[in-house]
Write a structure and sequence with these properties.
This protein has 426 residues and is α/β, with parallel strands linked by helices. Helix content is 33%, strand content 13%. It contains twelve helices and 13 strands. The relative contact order is 0.18. It binds pyridoxal-5'-phosphate. The site of pyridoxal-5'-phosphate has 14 residues, from α3 and α4.
């Protein structure tokens, strides 16, 4: 292809203003939020109660608790599963930071397992080797909206008597064997921040089908009290508690968005399928795939650049930066979702969460090895990937997707021209 790349002065493949922002806002959002504002109850109010019930019904859970973040909901999962001081919790080596820091929030110890390069999720075949007598739970993250093979995970968990926590923060509506994520383990956390498929500004949702887990999570969520904010509280603290409750305005926005979620997810799925068809066969591009026995929600369309084929295996990050810079110049805002694998992050390398080396120095803990070399697939993925999300979300349609594909094909067809450019933006 002879087109001149935009990064060296050519015309961008995607004209400015083409890609519509996320999330789409209409009168249903405005009315719900304004009604809450004028309704006089801005703390945990009627919209919060309704939002929990509606989300539980939508996802197919017995219980849901609306929280102020996905991270709060993850912490609640740890407590629901009774993970405590010195217990080990298995976590994928590549995920959002709080998939792992939630473990330390309850004085437990994260034990990382490498990812499977193809699925980008925890390598299920490596989980058993990471189990020790101290292991209490497995956290799986359905990353980018691709569901983990939960049949295999629950078989391992059942064999060893472990709890399974789903970090479903990115995976609203994704399914494994026809069942929605969040119903496949013992409890789960969803995020509702502005990037997510279901948004409420910031926010989260804890879900479970287990009554006892629900009670434990609820106590942590509201000051360690046994009665929730709508009951007859005695204001007695029975257990360690935080203040993780949602507020009525945010819940009102979330409720309005939940009504549109199925439509959003269908649009995203269609757009992702079209992008795959458009990009198939593009040299040096590794495309994401739909799991054989599940449904991706396409929260993020994650591409990888074949750095070995491109001759940049040794300086993958730097060359990926040039490719991403070129894509951005074409009008496609791709981003690097995580630049570091989790075990390489300072808090794990220094093993100091609360000062004095806690929780790793706690007498209940045993030594764990966070050497980054133990996680080669997570490292390779981190260095090779770039993500696309907003252009595939409603109201962006097939016309936008075709332009996105054209931008990616254009950059990959001219990738040799990036060799001599100064290092890019990523
Ligand atoms: C996989 C994953 N886990 C946890 C979180 C934390 O969610 P929140 O930002 O709502 O706390 C996020 C979102 O950023 C996420 O993507």
């Amino acid at each position: 292809m002879g087109e001149r790349l935009a990064i060296v002065g050519g015309s961008p493949a995607i004209p400015p203003g083409t890609i519509k922002p996320w999330p789409p806002i209409d009168d249903s959002d405005r009315n719900m939020v304004m009604d809450s504002l004028e309704g006089g109850k801005h703390t945990f109010g009627p919209n919060c109660v309704a939002f929990q019930e509606e989300f539980a019904a939508w996802n197919g859970n017995r219980y849901a608790i609306t929280t102020n973040s996905g991270t709060a909901a993850l912490h609640m999962c740890l407590v629901a599963c009774e993970c405590g001081c010195g217990d080990e919790v298995i976590v994928p080596a590549y995920s959002w930071s709080s998939s792992a820091t939630c473990v330390m929030q309850h004085n437990a110890i994260p034990v990382f397992v490498d990812i499977d390069f193809d699925t980008m999720n925890i390598d299920v075949d490596q989980i058993e080797a990471a189990i020790t007598p101290k292991t209490r739970a497995i956290i799986v993250a359905h990353l980018h909206g691709r569901p983990v093979d939960m049949g295999a995970v629950t078989a391992i968990a059942d064999k060893h008597g472990l709890q399974v926590i789903e970090d479903a923060c990115q995976a609203h509506g994704a399914k494994h064997k026809g069942k929605k994520v969040g119903t496949l383990g013992h409890c789960a956390a969803f995020s509702l921040n502005q990037n997510k498929c279901l948004v409420s500004g910031e926010g989260g949702m804890f879900v479970t089908d287990d009554e006892v887990m629900h009670k434990r999570a609820q106590a942590l969520w509201s000051f360690g009290e046994e009665v929730g904010p709508t009951g007859r509280r005695d204001y007695h603290v029975y257990a360690m508690g935080w203040m993780y409750r949602n507020n009525d305005l945010t819940a009102a926005f979330g409720r309005a968005q939940l009504k549109k979620l199925d439509h959003y997810l269908a649009a995203q799925k269609e757009n992702a399928a079209l992008l795959t068809r458009e990009l198939e066969g593009t040299p040096h591009l590794i495309l994401p795939s739909e799991p054989p026995d599940g449904e991706h929600n396409w929260y993020e369309y994650t591409i990888r650049f074949d750095m070995e084929g491109l001759g940049h295996a040794k300086n993958a990050r730097a060359f990926r930066g040039k490719i991403v810079g070129a894509l951005n110049a074409e009008g496609l805002s791709t981003y690097i979702w995580q630049s570091f694998i989790l075990p390489a992050m300072m808090v794990f390398q220094q093993k100091d969460g609360y000062g004095h080396g806690c929780p790793w120095s706690c007498p209940h803990a045993q030594a764990v090895d966070y050497s980054p070399e133990r996680f080669p697939m997570a490292t390779k993925h981190t260095d090779w990937h770039a993500g696309v999300n907003t252009p595939l979300r409603a109201p962006n349609d097939s016309e936008v997707v075709k332009l996105v594909a054209a931008a990616i094909r254009k950059v990959m067809a001219n990738v040799d021209k990036l060799e001599d450019l100064p290092e890019g933006a990523a």
